[in-house]
Write a structure and sequence with these properties.
The protein is of the alpha+beta class and 186 residues long. It is built from six helices and six strands; from the N terminus they run αββααααββββα. It is globular, with a radius of gyration of 17 Å.
């Protein structure tokens, strides 16, 4: 029987139960720095249907205590949308779920990656029942102080193509698959 993780208590939603948190699994299929092409764009592997459960669980896992973020009944009466307000970085859960395990943007899951900068713009709140599609564009690729950086732009749109949020995600990565392998197999 597997040993429970200290994070297991936060795994409550159906999406979470079917999402692998072990980024070491399948790293061989992740896009690498040397393979990434600036300007390459494509859709994420999956869509993300926004549910009250997703927002509530994320807000609670972030330690939120405001009733507008953790009390659905209170939010229905007092929130400007009539729904729970979302934590400002809720969009990250959509990204990690949607990107999947292969193809463009999977380098976000790379073992050994470091996170030097993020910029998230929320255009409008996500609403229950929206089906969010993510488009990933490799925005920049450069070396700075001898370290390989990748930046991608993720656009999150609902089923009516309304832009909901944008995320510029930058990481310092191992440069090649061999470099990732050395980290993953250390």
């Amino acid at each position: 029987m597997p040993v429970p993780s200290r994070l297991d208590r936060y795994v409550e939603t159906e999406k979470q139960k079917h999402f692998s948190r072990d980024f070491m699994i399948g790293w061989e299929r992740y896009e690498t720095w040397d393979e990434a092409t600036v300007g390459h764009s494509g859709p994420a592997q999956r869509t993300f249907e926004i549910t009250e459960e997703d927002i509530l669980d994320y807000n609670r896992a972030c330690g939120e205590t405001d009733p507008l973020m953790i009390d659905p009944a209170f939010a229905r009466q007092h929130s400007p949308t009539g729904e729970l307000l979302q934590h400002p970085v809720f969009v990250t859960t959509i990204a990690f779920y949607s990107l999947g395990e292969k193809g463009i943007g999977t380098w976000i899951r790379t073992p050994g990656a470091r996170n030097p900068q993020q910029r998230i713009e929320i255009v409008e709140p996500f609403r229950y029942g929206e089906i969010i599609s993510t488009t990933i564009t490799t925005a920049d690729k450069f070396t700075q102080r001898g370290k390989p950086y990748l930046q991608m732009l993720l656009d999150f749109r609902n089923e009516s193509s309304v832009l909901k949020a944008r995320w510029w995600c930058s990481l310092i990565l191992p440069a090649t698959r061999a470099d990732v392998s050395r980290f993953a197999n250390a």
